[in-house]
Amino acid sequence: MAIYINRELCTGCELCVEICPFNGVKLDEEGIAVLLDACNECGACVDECPVEAISIEVIKEGVIDISQYSGVWTLAEQRDGKLTRVARQLVGKARQLADVLGVRVESVLLGHNISELAQELIQCGADNVYLIDNPLLKNYQTDLYTKAIYDLTVEKKPEIFIFGATHMGRDLAPRLAQRIQTGLTADCTELTIDDTERHLLQTRPAFGGNIMATITCKNHRPQMATVRPGVFREPEKDLSREGNVINIKPNILESDILSHLVKYLKLEKKIVKLEEAEVIVSGGRGLKKPENFSLIQELADLLGGEVGASRATVDAGWISKDHQVGQTGKTVSPKLYIACGISGAIQHRAGMQASETIVAINKDPDAPIFKIADFGIVGDLFKVIPELISVLKAKKAKEMVV
Amino acid sequence: MRFIVCIKQVPDTTNVKIDKRTGRLIREGIPSIINPEDKNALEEALKLKEKFGGEVIVISMGPPQADEALREAMAMGADRAILLTDRAFAGADTMATAYSLGSAIKKIGEYDLVLCGRQAIDGDTAQVGPQLAEFLSIPQITYVSDLNIEENKVVAIQELEDKRVKWEANLPALLTVTAEANKPRYPTAYRIMSAYKEKDVEILEKKDLDVDEKRIGMDGSPTSVKRIFSPEPKGKGEIIKEEPKKAAGILFNRLRAKNIL
């Protein structure tokens, strides 16, 4: 059970404050009733309210009325005042899903002094943006974000709610799903709507991409899912698109915080986050000596990607273990994976075969890597990569002029 | 102090088989291991015990053969092991798993820290940790690469995509630990003997716990698997047979046509 107060209807008459046996409700500084932790969800205030601003939802055991839920929501993750790319990608996907269902796309944006990001979400395809602006929400904090989003979710009842499978999304979404008591599917690579039943079909890889599973959440709402960055394409922005920005005042207090942020630490060295990278350029034994990883690095830098490595090069001490891709290293699924001088043993392929596009450059035409490559170049990597670098540099120079 | 470590037994293979009839994973006949990052969590607990004293309890939910994983954890140094096993728990998604594990943890009584691996290699969801923390109403810190207890608080370093963040929380708290945190110790011969000959894995069944039947197993799981299938094999790739300069140009154009560059 849960009690909700509709802020638009509340007149501030204080009848609920008087009737409450637990001192669980008070008027805030705007004179509108808000619930306190002492609320026992007894429901005494619901009948007392003369304007029906207070409601109670009784969750029958395991059964909720899913027809009450409507709209496709996205969480608009921002970092340091900028929208993340996945935030835009989610809106693009949500638009497709909402058009099939004939409902609205609504994005939830939390932070402080970030109101201008709302327009960007609308340009990407959102109909409404719920803007929750509060100094306490400037940086991500599990407990406050969970509470603010939970309150909004139970009030507005979206049928679908999608999140980026970033570290923040994967910290927040499970906590939120547990509080709401609904299903959550991690790292979806495909989201579609079931034609007959209007359920969200959530497809995700498991066992390192060896199998795919389609998951449904039939009797609970919202249907929640996280999506890895880079899986869906960013929508084209429509600068003339119009939508509503709805300001939401969160009912959060400093005392709601359980985990306290002490400080952001300086990074001693760049963190190699292969799992998050959209582009990975990997080197293998074909590089011949450790210094030649600089060639891989140069190509990776030009593509805005990270450097990966085969186990052989890591075992030989050419590069640190955090670069290793494969069964005993990291499992990656970037948009673009370029394997240079890597033969492609099964152990390596297990860690990268889920990549969207695979390019292989290898001298040996029989190397197994070519079997899973979308594009293969049979040739000397010391000749091919410099040519590739010069093509990319030429393209960059051209863009600078434009 | 009391440290609880949640571990999961997972299949150690990349060649997973699927029961074509039911669409479910066939776990039988595949060698099993402790999920790698759960060992990192256990290692952190063992280090804290060495520093502050107390006991380390490992807990797992799974079929009876998960006994093996728990004994291995005791061979590494855990003091007690609890196996939550009952047909009624089978088919649980992450929410029902968090509820069942959480109910067992409540039965254990007082504790200071719950440690989990960041995620399991079979499902990769990273959900049970935060869901368990929410069920227990305790603070959570995820993606932890370093942790310590200072003045009755846990202090932890969280690794984000582009940042490292220092957090602290009152005890009890739940942390999920990454592979970067440590190198898990190997069992000693003495401990292996003890884990198999002297110690027992405590079994908890549904009847031993105060659980709501509608919140466990398949019935308690909001999500269900509709279909399992093998990813479509990649179509034949294109081998670009040109001299390096031309090959590089063609590759660039192909990638641009696919909207990658």
Protein described:
The complex is a heterodimer of chains A (402) and B (261). With 402 residues, chain A is of the alpha/beta class. Chain A has 11 helices and 22 strands. Chain A has a 7-stranded parallel sheet, sandwiched between helices. Chain A has a 5-stranded parallel sheet with strand order 19-18-20-21-22. In chain A, strands 12-13-14 form a 3-stranded antiparallel sheet. In chain A, helix 5 crosses helix 6 and helix 7 (293-302) packs parallel to helix 11 (381-401). The radius of gyration of chain A is 25 Å and the shape is elongated. Chain B has helices at 36-52, 67-76, 94-108, 128-136, 189-197, 244-257; strands at residues 2-6, 9-11, 17-18, 25-26, 32-34, 55-61, 80-84, 113-117, 140-150, 153-159, 164-170, 173-177, 201-204, 224-229, 238-240. Chain B has a 9-stranded mixed sheet. The longest helix of chain B has 17 residues, at 36-52. The model of chain B has no long low-confidence stretch (mean pLDDT 91). At the A-B interface, helix 5, helix 6, strand 11, strand 13 and strand 14 of A face helix 3, helix 4, strand 9, strand 10 and strand 11 of B. Strand 14 (211-216) of chain A pairs antiparallel with strand 14 (224-229) of chain B.
